[in-house]
Amino acid sequence: MFLYFPGNYMWSLAVLRSLAAGGIFGEIDWICQHLKEAAKQGGRGDIDAWVDAWTKLGDQVYGIGAAAAKRGHTETAVGAFQRAAVYYQWAEGFLVPSDRRAPVIFDKHLDAFANFARLHTPTIEIIDIPFENSHLKTYFVPAKGVNGRAPAVVLSGGFDGTKEEMCFVATALSVRGVHCIAVDQPGQGATLRINGLPARHDSEVAATVVFDWLARRPEVDPKRIGIIAASLGGYYAPRAAAFEKRFKACVAWCVIYDYHAVWLRRLDFPPGKAIVMKSNAPFGTVAEQALGIFGAKTWEEALKTLEKFKLDGVAEKIECDLLVVHGSEDRQTPVEGAERLYREAGSKRKEIWIRTPAEGGAAHVSLDRPEPDGSLICDWMADRLRAD
Q1: pTM above 0.85, yes or no
Q2: Considering only CA atoms, which of 109, 171, 175 is closest in space to residue 140?
């Protein structure tokens, strides 16, 4: 995997995720080339320097979008607002939840994406779906060029991901004639930060609520709904498909079979001292962000929650068509989990793609080469949803 910041996996992963989500390398390099020394400071780099640089980039690109929109240059505005949303996401991405800057920058992130959604063709709907005593934050991206009812996909990202980050998949499905609803699950994005809903193991609960909402849409064929998710979504999506039998197809883009075991490898257990994250652990965010996602105050409490994040005894319940995509060199989640899910899944029609360095896509969620996997996954899902 390309490390823009050698020795700093967390920052380098953020660069790759920004590029996959629609960022432009020249813009990112323009700001990050001044962070090379900051990346070496402390165990995780100088976070304040990172926040300042990425906020500056977000503000500049947002300004380009606002000026273009005012002049009626919609195409320029759409691209700029979408990229600004990406950059603001990473300006906020490493801040602890209690940092006063976090909600301000996250609001900028949402505002930039809302402008992108409003100007995008077709218009992307911003929807709060009632969920228990709160709401799930979602975007509905309509299919292009369809008449009558069409297939649809429920889409989500990973542990510290957002629905905005996954929008490139939603738009790719749209041009294939497939509706898509991108969701911040409990523990993700705005559903966590605004509505305060932490991560939970029973992903089928939220998935069923979203499925029901989609099935009521007059433009959606309720018999042709699939689910795609990446990273920790590679636990959430298979779990949801195992218990919500109406899903016709499922894609796990990177599989997490046992999340408790993953975290045991990431943490230090010094005798008589508090558990802490290893400074060199291959992971995408800081410890305080992780605890906030779990709704926990200590790692002991978080690990107790994580005991339920396992597909053991669940995978065999999956009946829908299944695609497993995983990188052989994934440093965050071992490939053995993907192979185990594939073996144990009860699906009659299932495939597994293990990407190697020779072909690219061998890193976490294919981030060393997100194409062609992104397109191939969308092709697979569109084909499966249209099949009898």
Answers
A1: yes
A2: 171
